[in-house]
Amino acid sequence: MASLDLLEFVPASDSSPPLIEAVNLLKEFGEFQAVKGVSLKVEAGQILALLGHNGAGKTTTTRMLAAILTPTSGQARIGGFDTVRQPLEVRKIIGHLTEQPGLYNRMRVLEYLQFFGELQRVPPKLLKERSEELLKHFDLWDTRQLRMGQYSKGMRQKAALIRALIHEPKVLFLDEPTSAMDPFSARIVRDAINDLKQSQRAIILCTHNLAEAEQLADRIAIIRKGEIIIEGTAEQLKQSLLGAPHYRVELNQPLDEIPQAVITLPHLKVLETFANGFVYETAEPAATNPVVLKRLLESGLSVVTLSQVSRSLESVYLKIAGEGFAAEHNRDEVEQSMLKEITKTSRNSRKVGKM
Amino acid sequence: MSQVELFPGTRSSISRALIVTRRELRDTLRDWRVLSPIITLVIILPIILAAILNILSPDLIRNLGRATFYDRLLPFTTLAIGFLPMSFCLVIALETFVGEKERNSLEALMSAPLTDFELFLGKYLAATLPTVLASIFASLSFGLVFTLMGQPFPVEPGLLLTFLALNIVQALVMVAGSVLVSTHTTSVRAANIMASFIILPMSLCVQFEAVLLLNNLQIGLYFMLLVLLVILLLLIRAGVKIFNREEIIAREGDNVSFKGILRGFGYFFKRTPREALAHQKTGLRWTPWRFYRHDIPQLVGLYRAPALVVLAAIVGGIVVSIWVSYWPVVQEFRDSLNLGDSLGGTQNPICQPNGINSISINGFQGITWQGLFINNTVSVLIGSGLSIISLGVAGILLLIVSTGPVGFVLGFFFQLSLNPWPLLAGFILPHGLFELPAAILGIAAALKISTSLIAPPAGMSIGQSFQFAIVNYIKLLGLIVPLLLIAAIIEANITPTIGCWLTGGTV
Fold first, then answer.
1. Cβ separation of A111 and B26 shorter than 8 Å?
2. What pTM did the predictor assign?
3. N or C: which end of chain A has fewer CB within 10 A?
4. CB distance A115–B23 less than 8 Å?
5. CA separation (Å) from A100 to A163, A212, A311, A332?
6. Domain check: are B237 and B337 in the same one?
7. Distance from CA of B392 to the nearest CA of A (A)
8. Are residues B146 and B292 in the same domain?
9. How many structural domains does chain B have?
10. Which of B103, B107, B112 lies closest to A116 in CB terms?
11. In terms of residue numbers, what domain contains B335?
């Protein structure tokens, strides 16, 4: 798949300020605090993924950054422009893919792009070229004669994404960019997002797709009840929430007992043993793993594999979300609902067994 | 040489607004649910109506008379047929914002570099053009079709222009009202329900126009045009001022919560006006001391401008009354009353023995403070009520009517070379010092209630602004009522003595 040639490379100097910067953003709707003191920074060429439940505050945060909502307090600057004092400048340099594509159903996609391109003051010739290029890239060119009301959900999502890109924005806010897309289209969009990152755009990606966040984002922020409760790279989040990485050793023979020379190694903790191997945890894999291999060989054991046990971002998210859920609800209620769920499941399995 | 712009940025603003307008119009013209009724109303209905009137014209002329048919019925039909398409075109205006919100396309539009004014103007023009054009086209197509049937054009050119102007302004008013509704509702359904508040008064307008036309009172039509223009300006100002993209995006429900409403009132009662305007938490606990030390002085300061407007209207009313008192017809009336002696004071009934006891106010015999107090309080409350529903106009008119006679009296004094000041200083000043500020403040606070819907303070929604103004009015009653009480006591017990003494009479 060709990359997005039209999206020019924008060099970023080391001294340039972050393209997205928010300090202590707070948003109140009456007495309800939707966002409570969110601070974040995204440099050029970076993607920050915002993860959180529905209603956690992701959309309100991006709306404040897009200068659609005014923060109750705090400050945000996009490309150096203040979102409250210079909203028009902000809106000129951002591309905002909203959660719902919300197209004009009676329009054709070229008319739609022309409309937003004109609002963004894209010169007509360039607008035409860019529309064609993007529509071809996202596989919508052949459907350009259809009214957008006839588009499938995935096509609508792609049309909305093209609209957000039509003026070559420096900053992108993408809310669920691949939701409702088939795997092939989702792949095209993910590749496009990667290309945009390479061309030094700063991107905030709001998503429920944890694999996508892990794959695309440089950093991930988990937002709960309007607050960013943790932020870092996927690895940092896993480390801080799930502990040190786990490694699995498989031998080519049954293992009666783990050699003492291995067990006594510093920074190593055996977690589990099985017929021909074991699982251990170490916070210092660079130092520990070669020694483990050496000691096993010295003990006459042949190692088939030594691999890191993969731990998904989903585990991190569920751990945090689970903690949040338990904290938000009465423990008894949680236990009761779990009990009900277990009873229902066992009843269903009994029914299946009888069939 | 570069061209100097009168208003920098205006041209680019209008050009961006027109991008929005073009898109909206294109969308409208592709919607058969809007197009088919418009085509029916601007082409098919006028043809049918013209044909019917043409066929029935001999009978109608015989039964109604030639003058009634040509000078009344045909002009009114031309006017009414221009009104019909407007109500259908309101669908477009009602959908402008809330329709986009419902289709989830509004957020993308709001992310584009458009100012609130550009967005509002673009949408307003898009909703206005079909409405205005449909109205003009319907009136003209009726006239032309009727003429093509061998009849004279149904309206004379001057009246046709008045009709077109009336219908255009009515269309603009209806669209401005609808766009306002559209920015403050959360669903097209809710907007359609609210539309009756626009269609009903406008239908009454058309009925009133019919009455004027059928009675050959064309001057009334010009007056209506003027009133509608004022309403239009107010609605557009309100539309631009209270257009709040944040509220449009964030508003999620139209549910009525009585608890919420009560909480809102409580919020404003607990805070001083300044705290409420600054959205601050309440500092001082509510006590009568805080109320009279902070709330009331702040409110008087806050309402200085509307109070000055009311005062200026009263002064203007008095000046106009003085001027009117010089009209020959009024002078003849003055002479017929033979006022010379009574204006001198010696024959003032109040200064006659038992004169006061012959007067009855609110069931109280004689000039009693109870009767005066009830009378004045009820007057201020009625004036306030009228002000709320008439943007202050009726309340101010009521005050002018009450104070206008002072102007006539002054005029008569000047004409008769008498000194008016003892009469004014004696019979008006003592209690007027308390009564007049109370009345002015009451009407000014009521005026603020009605304007609260047009121009809410920064950071307040329309609902909050309305609640704030009502709470302020209620709080001000804490000053107005005591002032009226003091005024009534003075007027009953002190004013007659001072007045009669100054004017040479005795009580």
1. yes
2. 0.69
3. C
4. yes
5. 13, 19, 32, 37
6. no
7. 31
8. no
9. 2
10. B112
11. 273-503
